[in-house]
Amino acid sequence: MYCKYCGKKLEENQDVCLNCGKLVHEQASTSTTGKSKIVAGVLGILLGTFGIHNFYLGYTGKALAQLLLTVLTCGLLSPIIGIWGLIEGILILTGSINEDADGNELI
Predict the structure, then answer these.
(1) Residue 74 CA from chain centroid, whole number
(2) CA atoms within 13 A on the CB side of 5
(3) Residue 7 phi, psi dihedral angles, 5° rounding
(4) β-sheet bridge partners, residue 105
(5) 84: Cβ contacts below 8 Å, ≥ 6 apart
(6) The dihedral formed by the CA atoms of 84, 47, 69 and 94, expressed in degrees to the nearest 10
(7) Which residues of the chain fall short of a pLDDT of 70?
(8) How does DSSP classify residue 35?
(9) Sign of CA dihedral 100, 54, 36, 28
(10) pLDDT score of 89
(11) Is 58 helix (H, G, I), strand (E, B) or coil?
(12) Where are any strands of DSSP class E within the chain?
């Protein structure tokens, strides 16, 4: 079961979410709207130069760094940033990176 408000996993008999402090007894659901591991990995491999996979996962600081390094150097650093994105994409697909910025598990 997952908290309706923050998406964190709950124990079976838990009445209050320890993450957000909300009462979840009646509001708990058995599914979460997690982000896809496959989508994030493919975005990292194909568009990692622009940090699109990090925007998707909610890591906006890292995503902006990748985007700005590519754009502000007129593409001179894009091969390096592309390799960075490729590595992160592979790590996402293999399960080494398995959470989004909010701590929700990738599905």
Answers:
(1) 27
(2) 12
(3) 85, 0
(4) 99
(5) 48, 66
(6) -20
(7) 25-33
(8) P
(9) positive
(10) 97
(11) coil
(12) none
